[in-house]
Fold:
Amino acid sequence: MNVFRGADDAEGMTAGARITVMAVLCTMILAMLPLAGCGSKAADGQETRDVAVVTDLAGRRVEIDSPVERVVAIGPGALRLVCYVGAAEKVVGIERFEIQWDTGRPYMIAHPELLELPVIGQGGPDSTPDPEMLITVDPDVIFAAYLVDTAKANELQYKTGIPVVVLSYGRLGTFDEEVFESIDIVGEVTGDSERAGKVAGYIRGCLDDVEERTADIPEVDKPAVYAGGLGMKGTHGIESTQAEFPPLDAANALNVVDETGAGGSVIIDKEKLLHWDPEIIFVDEVGLQMVRDDYAGNPGLYNALKAVKEGRLYGYLPFNFYATNIDTALADTYFMGKAIFPHAFEDVDPVAKADEIYEFLVGKAVYERMAGDFGGFTEIKLAPD
Structure:
């Protein structure tokens, strides 16, 4: 039957015949659709591309042609997550900030080849993306963290013609749920979802392990703990600290700063530290020199502290360099957990655990390099020998 009847013929058809014709036409159209569908061979034999739709951490629905082979990552922490997911080889450009300040970031230590890539902008906190430089490396997608909100992401996408996917580390930027969501999105976009699932599972597994070791320790058996010297838009001394400090929170430790209700970074009066007189003090090694300098000018304050008198002053690896190095934060959590609750972590060698974490997340055991740069997991002596 010729289904392409003329208009005059169609007018003389019965209703049943017209229905039959429409059914045949629909069947033919449906049969033809796969030939022009996403991810199939077009009529000229050329491979078409799938279109993936992801919802990023700004709540934007972003369409991305896949498979994605060329990516860039801008803003604090974006490149780190790409490396965690195993997509470092897909990166085609790098921020100047990553090249100029490569200390303290295990993903850069493990992937020195990234330093040879074309520069795609200045980068750094509070910087503005450079659309022209991003366009020159022709990426399939731009991952952006912290530097852009919804409006700025849309603007950058419009100016470059390149899909922009916003990532986030969440409120505290360490073990926040938004970190895991960002890892999943990077995996989905790059085609590395299996690896992304393993990364998220490994981090959660470490946190669960620490939780299981410390959850049942009675409050009365927990020593009072303080972490000082924390970097906060610059280097600071012993007075720089944080309530809800992620490694101490993860280890269910008794952080004396939590009583302030600050819920984040805070600068305390040094007299407050004397009042608290914690049994254990940890010092972020990025601020250690400032602590030593302060001690030289005021040794009496420090020598009055129980933690100093009893030799329970410890240095730990800084983990906030261009957003949070989740790997180092996990390693610090095990180190602090063992220092606070030695029996609960008696089977843990913090150095070996650190290298296990680095090996899994960035592909290389880099504790020795990190310790060489900052000092590593060690007891601190403030007085000169």
